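Bug: C-alpha cell stream looks shifted between consecutive jobs. Job 1:
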Amino acid sequence: MTRNIVFIKQAIGDETPVAVYNLSITESLNELSTLTFSFDSEGQNSVAAQMMAPQTRVLVPETNQWFRLSSINPVPLGKTFAYSVSAVHVGTDLHDKYVDKRLTNTQSLDSCMKFITNGTDFKYVIHDTFKNYSFSDGFGGDFSDSLLMNTLKENFGFEFYFDNLTIHIYKQLGNIDQFVFVDGYNATKISWTEDYSNIRTSIKGLGKQNDNGSYAASAEFRSPNADIWGVKQAATIQDDRFTDGGSLLEYIKSQLQDYPIIQYTMERAAFEHGAKLSEFNSVKIGNSGLLKDRFGIDVDTRIVGMTYFPQDPKQSDTLTFGNKIFDYAHNLALQRAARKTNENIGKSVAQLTSDVGSMMNNGVWYVWQ
C-alpha cells in the first residue's frame, strides 16, 4: 500500500506531517475542490489523530493547496484506528462572512469583489474586462461565497478558480484545441450521459420598463433547433439594463439552452507521459479539444471535472467532459478553422489522422455493434 505525506495544521497553529494512503482530489468547473484520504493512527500518526478537529487544515504538497477538514470517520483497527478523512478547499472560508449591507444601482465587478472580500484574508485577480452590472434589487444580503459563485458569476458571466486564498476570475477558463483523444487508441472506457429535459428553442426579452408601463426595448428569438425539437418556449426575461433591442437580443440568445446536455467521462490512464499523443494533450479544467468515438464522430468537448491521485501514479485518474459547442456540423467547421490557426496541434491532428487510417487498414479499429 502506497503511503505519502500531507501536513495537518490546527487552528491554533500546531502542525504535523501524517502518512496517508488512497488520497484523491476532485476538481469541478466553478466549484471548490474536494479531498479524501485515509491514515492509520499509529506511531507518529497518533499526533495527527489528535488534531482531527474543526478548522483543521490539510496541505497537499504536490499541489501546494490547503483544504479545510469537513468530516472524519475513525474505524477501530486493533489497538489503533483507521481514519477516513474528507476536506474542502480552503476557499470554503469565504462562507465565514455574511454580507448584511447591499450595493445599489450600477456596479463594477471590482467594486463587488471588494465588497464581499473586505475584512477577510481573500484576495482576487480579475484577468479580463467585464461590463458593469445594474442591480435592480441591490447586491448583498447573503454569504460571500454564495454571492461570488451564484450571483456575481451569473450576472457578470465569468468563471473562476481558487489558488488557496486568491480568487482568479476569467471570462472563460482554459484554452481551445488542447487535446485529441480517440477511443481504442489513446483513450479507454469512454461513457456518456445525455440530458434532454431542459431544451428550450424560443425566448422573449423585455428591456427597461418606462414610467407608463411600456418597455424601452423588446426582442424575440427562435432557435434554428426549433425545426428539430419543436417550439419550446423559455421564460420571458425582463432586464432593466437594456434600452436597445439589438443588445437585448444578443443577451436572450446567450440565455437559451437549445441543445441537450451531454457529458462524457473517460479514464485518464492513457493521458500520462509516454502515452500516445501525450506530448501535446493538455489536461486542465476548462481546456477544450476533440473526442473521437468509435463511430468516427468528432465531438468538441471541454474538461469540466477531474478526479486524480497526485501521490499514486498507478491509480487511474478520470476526466469529465461537457458540451462546448451545440451543433455537431457547426462544431466540426469551427474545429477545422481552429486547427488552421494552431500549427502545433494541426501537425498532431494530421499525424493522428494518419495513425487512425493505418489502424483501420490493419484491422485494429473496431466499432460497437
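Job 2, same session, no restart:
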Amino acid sequence: MTVIAHISDLHVSTADFNEDIFMQAATEINRLQPDMIILTGDLTDHGYYNEFEQAKRYLEVFEAPLFAVPGNHDSRNLGYQSFEELIGEKSWKLTLGDEFTVIGLDSSSPDENKGHVGTPQHMWLEHQLDECVINEQFSIVALHHHVISIPQTGRERNVLSDAGDVLKTLTTHEVDLILSGHKHVPNIWRINDTLAVNAGSLCSSKLRGKNKNSYNVYNITDSEIEIFLNIVGGEKFLFGKFPRNTL
C-alpha cells in the first residue's frame, strides 16, 4: 500500500498562521509515516522572502519526502522567485517505483489570484501523461487552483482560466487523482474515472463556516483508493473509497 499525505494552504505569516496547529499536524503526519507529502500551494500569505524562509524551516519538521507547488499567495511580491530559490521547482515530475507518477503544475500568476496553466506547461503535461498511459502507471497531478468549482465557497472567481482544456487532458488520460487546495474547503468530485480532491487549510485561521484545519490522507492499493479527511488534533473519517482504474 502507498500512503500519501496531502496538505495545503499554510499561509505562513505573522497574522494568519497558527504554529501550534502546524506542529500538531506535523506530529500526526510523521506518525503516519507516509511515502510522500504533497503540498498544494499557499505556503506563505504574502510571498515575502522572510515568509518563505520561515516556511522552509517549518517544512523541515516533516520526516517524509515533501513536494510542493506554488499558490497564488506565493507568487505575490516576487514570491515566484523566492519559491524556486528556497523551496524548489514550481513544476515537476517524480516517480514512485515503476507504477506511480506524480506531476506538479504551477497554476499561479505573479500578483494575481486567478489560476492559469498556460500552453507550454499544458503541452509538457500532455507529454508526461501520454507516457503514463503507455506505461500503465497510476497518475497524480497536483496544482493549487482547482479545475472545477468547489461547493460552499461562494461566488467562483478563481477556477483556472484554461480549466476546460486542462480538465479534458486530465480526464481523457484517465488521471487517477487531481490534488488541489486554494479554497480551504475539503471536497471530492468524481469525473468519469478521475477523482478531483481538494484539501482544506492545514494551519491558517482563514476558514469558512464551521470548517476546521485539516489534511487528506490517501491509502492506495492495487484495487482501491481510500481517502481520509483528518481534522488536526481531532477526528479522522473516511472521506471516500473508490476502485482503482484499470487501463
